[in-house]
Amino acid sequence: MQMHSLAVDAPADVHVWRVDIDLDAPLEGAGAGLLDANEIARAHRFMRHEDAARFITLRACLRRLLAAELDIEPPQLQLDVDTNGRPSLAMPHAPDFNVSHSGAHGLIAISFKRRVGVDIEEARPSFDWRELEASVLHHADKRVIDATPEAQHSGAFLACWTAKEALLKAHGEGIGGKALTMTSFSVLPRNGVRYAVSAEAGAFEAVSIEAPEGYAAALAWSAVSRSSCESNHDA
Q1: Is 80 helix (H, G, I), strand (E, B) or coil?
Q2: CA–CA separation, 202 vs 181, rounded Å?
């Protein structure tokens, strides 16, 4: 397991790390002294070893990073989960954070000032973007992708998809949310690393971020403070 701090085109309060995961690492003793009993039990309920390895690795790294930000010991952190399955810290003035993983890599984003979301996706050989097109693309996104050379369509779609997932996670909706859906907003075109997020997504921004070869990754954040986001979301 290795963890790398990434340079991202985002506000200074937003920090992102990439985690490289050893999918063959033994589970015995993994996460000891970092994860609580419920997390260890959850890891051992996964049917596939690699899924358990991803969960333990990302959760252990997340606890280390949050503990360092808050100057406490990792086991002292109490993580709650909201109705959308998004974890948060059960303490006042805690940072917002988000986690994503795919294949042998994961991402963690943390900010004390705004909501954040990350997504990373592996471009598997069997990936057929056309199967997901109708459930992901806004008509504006489709127009941009269709205008690119056909050989670039799959990569353009994967990048668009990661940006949308990161935005939904930052928004607090998650995939399948009722207030905001994949097709209800657009993120294309992209200027360099920065996505053109449409007004339907609210006051949020998104960028592509450095990813290993064969992967696409994105970061999203609220343009306004977390308190403003939560007030608008609850209204």
Answers
A1: strand
A2: 12
Tell me how many domains the chain contains: 2
Q: What range does the domain containing 8 cover?
A: 2-116
Same domain for 214 and 144 = yes
Calpha distance 146→48 (Å, rounded) = 37
User: What is the model's pLDDT at position 2?
Assistant: 85
207 in the Ramachandran plot: left (φ > 0), alpha (ψ -120 to 50) or beta?
beta
**Average pLDDT estimate for 111-131:** 92
Q: How far apart are CA 212 and CA 138, in angstroms?
A: 27
> 116, 143, 169 — which closes off a domain?
116
- How does pLDDT run across 135-185, given as a tens digit for each residue? 999 999 999 999 999 999 999 999 999 999 999 999 886 544 557 899 999
Are 227 and 206 members of one domain? yes
Distance of CA 30 to the CA centre of its chain: 23
Question: Rounded to the nearest 5 degrees, what angle is found at the Cα of 127, between the Cα atoms of 122 and 131?
Answer: 125
Residues 23 and 111 occupy one common structural domain? yes
- Give the C-alpha separation, 216 to 210, whole Å: 8
Q: Do 40 and 148 sit in the same domain of this protein?
A: no
| Mean pLDDT, rounded, for 182-205 | 96
User: What does the buried/exposed string (b/e) look like for 151-185 if buried means 16 or more CB atoms within 10 Å of the residue's CB?
Assistant: eeeeebbbbbbbbbbbbbbbbbbbeeeeebbbbeb
Taking the model in full, what pTM does it have? Answer: 0.91
Report the candidate in 193, 31, 217, 197 with the shortest Cα–Cα distance to residue 119.
217
